[in-house]
Amino acid sequence: MALNRGANAVNIPAILADRAAAHGGDIILRKKDRGIWKAVTWAELAARARDVGMGLKAIGFRPGDVACTLAETRPEFVYADLGILGAGGVSGGIHPAEEADPVRQVLCDSRCNVLFVENEEQLDKVLTVRERCPALRRIVVFDMKGLRDFADPMCESFETFCSRGAEYDRSHGGDWERGIAAIAAEHGAVLLVPLGGATRSRILSHGDALHLIADARSLLPEWTGNERLALLPMCSATERVFGLYLALDSGTINNYLENPDTVMENLQEVKPTVLVADPQIWRFLHARIGQAAAGATRVQRLLYGWAIGAGQRGGVQAILARWLVLRTVRRELGLGRLRLACIDAALPPEVERWAAALGIAIQRIDGQATRGIALDARCRAPMQEAYGTS
């Protein structure tokens, strides 16, 4: 069944609600855990986001309040983000590599009320600075490993928090739907947090995010069976808007890494049709094939060199080279099915030429975009200020 894209939605939670109602049993998310890909349907995603949102409402979180997440890219980050938005809040992501003081600066500058953290390591950072974060009322921990005996009135597990949300939902029937209906396009949605805290955070509204998604639809036509592998930090605007939100709009299945060391294995397993990445990923893939070529036989090296040259020149020779040689290279990288590749910054020219030889045209999707997506003034200014784009 074709998915009706959210052209008429006025906020991000409305897209999720519409998809869950129409395609509840379809898969929208997967996470590899202990060697097994575990699937989440639209209905399950909507229910988990709802539990988070109602958990926020249960502790007095109000529309316009700010909640942040300090974690790697993982499904729980998605649940928290969509739950915050559904509760009418502004959702911020803090890079997990940040030290305690930049985290404190973000929490104070944004007047963050609730913070979701990944694990004991991230919790320890926050505990050292929370006394200097006057707006912070609650800390919610995704992974309680190593914290079994930890007790603190400000802190609780993600499971406990969501259970309270589900209980609150049962006694406040319809509050979730009414809340989503009240979220206007101009209401704040995405808190753009600059790495290092050198620049004050800025906010994209729901309308800003939806405008970016609408522009990006031309890049992601109505293909069936689209899948992507989430490789960027969820705290970035690129991953949040052009990764997650665009995937929700288009029905693209989101796949999440088992851990950062399994990128190649997961690429080969998922065989994504959509890849939103950064230049580092493409440099890694380029280097990996370069190393493999260096260790190949002389005949194989000659064939690869000819194929790359032919692919870069274009024409009939490029078609032949891709069919005879380079499609094997793409399969080795897990990119045999790739239809759309996007990056958030400039690629080294040699890497871009190499990708083009493979038949991969990489789109630029930040404020310097020259193809496909152009940010309007509402979106460009905050992204420039937060990330230094132009």
Would you kindly provide a brief summary of this structure?
With 390 residues, this protein is an alpha/beta fold.
Describe the structure.
This protein has 390 residues and is an alpha/beta fold. It folds into two domains: 12-205, Rossmann fold (3-Layer(aba) Sandwich), CATH 3.40.50.12780; 278-359, no CATH class. It has helices at 12-23, 42-58, 75-86, 100-110, 120-127, 158-171, 175-181, 206-216, 237-250, 263-270, 279-294, 298-313, 315-333, 349-357, 377-387; strands at residues 27-33, 36-41, 66-70, 90-94, 112-117, 138-141, 155-157, 188-192, 202-205, 227-230, 253-256, 274-277, 340-343, 362-364.
Considering the chains and any ligands shown, give keywords for the structure.
2 domains, Rossmann fold, four-stranded mixed sheet, alpha/beta, seven-stranded mixed sheet, 390 residues
Spatial sequence of strands, sheet with the most strands: 7-6-5-3-4-8-9
Helix count? 15
CATH top level of the largest domain is Alpha Beta
Q: Give the helices and strands as they follow along the chain.
A: HEEHEHEHEHEEHHEEHEHEHEHHHEHEH
What is the alpha-carbon Rg in Å?
Answer: 22 Å
Structural class: alpha/beta
Level of helix content?
Answer: 40-55%
The CATH architecture of the largest domain comes to 3-Layer(aba) Sandwich
Annotated CATH homologous superfamily of the largest domain: ANL, N-terminal domain
Question: In whole angstroms, how far apart are the ends?
Answer: 40 Å
Give the biggest beta sheet.
7 strands, mixed
At the third CATH level, what is the topology name of the largest domain? Rossmann fold
Quickly count the domains: 2
- Tell me the β content: 15-25%
What characteristic shape results from the CA principal axes? elongated
- Strand segment tally: 14
Mean model confidence by pLDDT: 89
The unreliable regions are 367-390
